[in-house]
Design goal:
Blueprint lengths: L4 H10 L11 E6 L6 H12 L2 E6 L2 H11 L7 E5 L1 H9 L9 H6 L10 E13 L31 H14 L1 H13 L9 H10 L4 E5 H8 L4 H8 L1 E4 L10 E8 L6 H11 L2 H11 L2 E2 L9 H5 L10 H4 L3 H11 L3
Parallel strand pairs: 1-2, 1-3
Antiparallel strand pairs: 3-7, 4-5, 4-6, 4-7, 4-8
The structure holds fe (iii) ion.
Length: 339
């Protein structure tokens, strides 16, 4: 009996949620990204560094609430999520600690980071149209969606969704509040139906002829292109994709990103993890796994469908600035009736 007891003891420590040991290498990651392909991204980090990741997944608002409530005792080391406005919200709550990392500064372009948080991938918010029904020349700019030609032809998800609020925020920056409100009113006047569903639902509605034009994030488009369901691929054959505003401020892009929490118990591991997300390998995971673009120049990707979308001029508005107008965008969309 005495001989096997130590073995049993070891076993019981190595499985299950053992209390944190002094030298245990762990990282507590609060993640509002819900992409299955991220699993490989995290497993690779553990393989490289020996740092185990405890992942707490949840909706972004719930996670933020949780971090706030946990206060100084929060086990959270890193918070990652999608959408610049959500990261800015966490930042405004004072949850992030500034991270000084030469590697992050060198690898992530200026406009895709702030002092407190970093973008690791980008997605563009593009115009999609039914190729049989709409001439691409008529929908070259976000502004075109509010024009008289599009009467009764637009479907789009809720104006309260962060993806649209971030777009609205960018429009306020470039066009001003008044023009953005006129745009929102014109857009609402052109609706084919009351906003419902997510971006994928709009793409399918456009292909099915329920409406002719919509707005979508690019990774939803590529996901359907790469789908193993024949129906999804057929859907995409009917869809034309336009890079909006190539002759003006460029196509609105949004990000996924993250930052280290002020109360992080494992600060070294947190910085290592953020730096890992900017490594060539992790950058390739974003592109290949979730059909987003790497933020690091020269990161090699293998995603023919994503590449088939081609190159475009992206709006280079700083992600920190981008989120400043979100609350105003919500007010404008509310007044315009974009529910
Ligand atoms: Fe999404």
């Amino acid at each position: 009996m005495k001989l096997i007891q130590p073995a049993l003891l070891l076993l019981s420590l190595s499985v299950g949620p053992a209390p944190a040991l002094a030298q245990e290498k762990v990282l507590n990651l609060y993640s509002a990204r819900h992409y299955q392909t991220d699993e490989a991204l995290y497993a690779n980090f553990t393989r490289q560094t020996g740092i185990r990741i405890n992942r707490i997944e949840g909706k972004e608002d719930e996670l933020l609430e949780r971090i706030k409530n946990e206060g100084a005792n929060s086990p959270a080391d890193v918070f990652i999520t999608v959408d610049a406005a959500r990261l800015a919200q966490a930042d405004a709550l004072g949850l992030f600690a500034p991270v000084k990392s030469r590697l992050l500064e060198e690898r992530i372009p200026d406009h895709l980071r702030t002092l407190d948080w970093f973008s690791f991938s980008t997605r563009a918010r593009v115009i999609i149209h039914n190729k049989a029904m709409v001439n691409a020349a008529d929908v070259q700019n976000y502004e075109d969606l509010a024009g008289p030609k599009m009467k009764g032809r637009i479907c789009v998800r809720s104006g309260s969704h962060p993806y649209n609020l971030s777009l609205g925020s960018a429009l306020i920056h470039h066009l001003g509040e008044q023009k953005t409100e006129e745009w929102a009113r014109g857009l609402v006047a052109n609706f084919a139906r009351t906003p419902k569903g997510g971006d994928t639902d709009q793409i399918k509605a456009v292909a099915a002829g329920e409406c002719d034009v919509s707005i979508s994030n690019t990774y939803y488009i590529v996901r359907l292109m790469r789908s193993d369901k024949a129906d999804d691929r057929k859907t995409m054959e009917k869809i034309g994709v336009v890079w909006p505003n190539q002759k003006s401020f460029g196509t609105h892009i949004n990000i996924s990103g993250g930052g280290m929490l002020k109360t992080a118990p494992h600060k070294d591991a947190a910085v290592k993890f953020l730096e890992y997300l900017a490594s060539d390998e992790a950058q390739a995971y974003f592109a290949n796994g979730n059909n987003e673009w790497p933020v690091v120049k020269g990161a090699v990707t293998k995603n023919p469908e994503l590449e088939s979308l081609g190159k475009f001029k992206a709006d280079t508005l700083n992600v920190g600035t981008l989120s400043k107008n979100t609350a105003q965008a919500q007010k404008i969309f509310d007044r315009a009736g974009w529910r």
